[in-house]
């Protein structure tokens, strides 16, 4: 599949159906939606009184936090590899 080809995929996140569009494979987009659904349910299990909007925002905040931690770890590993190469 070319990187420019738009694909539409129907997914269910937290009990609601969405159509998402992207240039990744349908399986990739379904996997992303599945992870979002899983994270929302995880946060909801900790605090079941949250409304969907707050739950979605907290899911986004937690996801970006995890992304930033992974990015920091990636940079640390790259620096270590560069140090070893020298």
TrEMBL record:
Pfam families: ZapA. Signal peptide: none annotated. It comes from the Bacteria. Keywords: Cell cycle, Cell division, Cytoplasm, Septation. Activator of cell division through the inhibition of FtsZ GTPase activity, therefore promoting FtsZ assembly into bundles of protofilaments necessary for the formation of the division Z ring. It is recruited early at mid-cell but it is not essential for cell division. NCBIfam families: PRK14126.1 (NF010724). This is Cell division protein ZapA.
């Amino acid at each position: 599949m070319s990187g420019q080809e738009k694909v539409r995929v129907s997914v269910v996140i937290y009990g609601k159906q969405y159509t998402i569009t992207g240039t990744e494979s349908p399986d990739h987009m379904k996997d992303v939606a599945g992870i979002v659904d899983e994270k929302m349910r995880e946060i909801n299990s900790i605090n079941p009184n949250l409304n969907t909007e707050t739950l979605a925002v907290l899911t986004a905040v937690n996801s970006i936090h995890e992304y930033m931690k992974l990015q920091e770890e990636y940079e640390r590993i790259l620096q270590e590899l560069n140090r070893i190469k020298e």
